[in-house]
Amino acid sequence: MGSTAGTLARWAHELVPDAEDLALAQRSLVDTLAVTLAARDDDLVRISAGLPDAARWAAVGHVLDFDDLHMESTAHISVVCVPATLAASGDARAYLAGAGVMARIGTALGWSHYASGWHATCTAGAPAAAVCAAVALGLSSEQIATAIALAVPAAGGVQRAFGTSGKSLQVGFAADAGVRAARLAAAGATADPAALDAWLRLVGGDPGRIEVDGPAVPGGLAIKMFPCCYALQRPISALREQLPDGIATEDVAEIEVRTPAGTVQPLIHHRPSTGLQGKFSMEYAVAAALLDAHPGFGSFTDRAVTRAEAQRLVRLVTVDETPGGDWLLAGQVDIALTLRGGARHAVRLELPPGSPGRPPSEQDMSAKIADCGDDVPALLSEVEWKRAAALLAEHLPGTDQKEPA
Which domains, ranges and CATH numbers included, belong to the chain? Predict the structure, then answer.
């Protein structure tokens, strides 16, 4: 019986994308570049300047937490796979090969892996980045399997990093590890492909869950409409879509949120004091949705999080976690506001806009790209894979330390 790495490598090597796959790849390229360019002024650009391209681009692309998500694996696929592909001069097919492997490994890891505190974007991301780079480099299926195995030692990352620059940096480390592994495989390094199976079992995964049929990226990808953790997209959307206009925040006396326990797994900051912490706080997300016309980049700064009225609203929020939930959109969210005087307003939502069940429209995507910077729509209007690396290099200058081929 062959190894899981061998099975995935053969699938990736033989992949022939169809039109829908290629459309997903192009949307992923544009979305990832947009959110990366939006972070051009973030301090992480300076911090990561000495890292290799894949690490720097992935870290900066993730720092605003505005990049896409694969729901079944709870992994941010494109922010790993786009930088890894571009660092190896790859194209849409290389991206799709790695993205498909990442979705499948992440699904094999399962919700229990994420719920135990692992950061699935990194654990599934390192082997996937190896596939992106290996396909881009034109390696054989045997060499792709070797690259996957060589990336296994770097397949780590924990949710405790959420709300710090460590979260973005460990995503960058995963992307870089994959590119390094592919270059080493190309240079003749050897590894046992069965390492992936052994590692999957060690971290609670099930190799038997991996299937290589269906579209390149099973389940598709969710696009974020707000620059914060995906677990906050639904409560923010529920309040924005359904709450009546004209409610003064100073009249709010009590806020109750009811949601399955699994849907708040990454929301570890209950009294946030920084913008990064606010991106992982249910309490602050509710406050921002009530205070801000559009909870965008300006809502997730240190100054915004520490606003007196925001902090008052944060203290009013109670979260009732109902038992269960094995993904971030399990069940539904119910939010009830009680005003001074006793008036009560309740909202409920199952699927937020941008989720695979409510895919973003062209207008949604255009609005998101425009939010990422005045020049971003023009920069990305006709962007192609072969030009994308140069675009990032121009706008995110660094001191790239490439691994030897």
Answer: 4-225+357-395 (1.10.4100.10), 230-349 (3.30.1330.120)
Pairing of strands 344-349, 317-322: unpaired
Integer Rg of the chain from CA: 21
pLDDT score for 398: 78
Q: SS3 of 337, please?
A: strand
Query: What are the tokens at 186?
Result: 């190309």
Dist CA 75 CA 102 (whole Å): 8
Task: Classify the C-alpha dihedral 241-79-170-8 as positive or negative.
Answer: positive
Amino acid at 106: G
Closest CA to 296 of 374, 375, 372: 372
Beta strands 317-322; 333-339: pairing state: unpaired
H helical segments located in 137-292: 141-151, 165-186, 195-202, 233-242, 275-278, 282-291
Query: What is d(CA 402, CA 118) in angstroms, rounded to the nearest whole number?
Result: 28
- Tens of pLDDT, residue by residue over 26-74, are 999 999 999 999 999 999 999 999 999 999 999 999 999 999 999 999 9
* Mean pLDDT across the chain: 96
What gap in Å lies between CA 54 and CA 180, rounded to an integer? 10
Q: How confident is the model at residue 182 (pLDDT cuts 50, 70, 90)?
A: very high
Residues 378-393 have pLDDT tens digits of 999 999 999 999 999 9
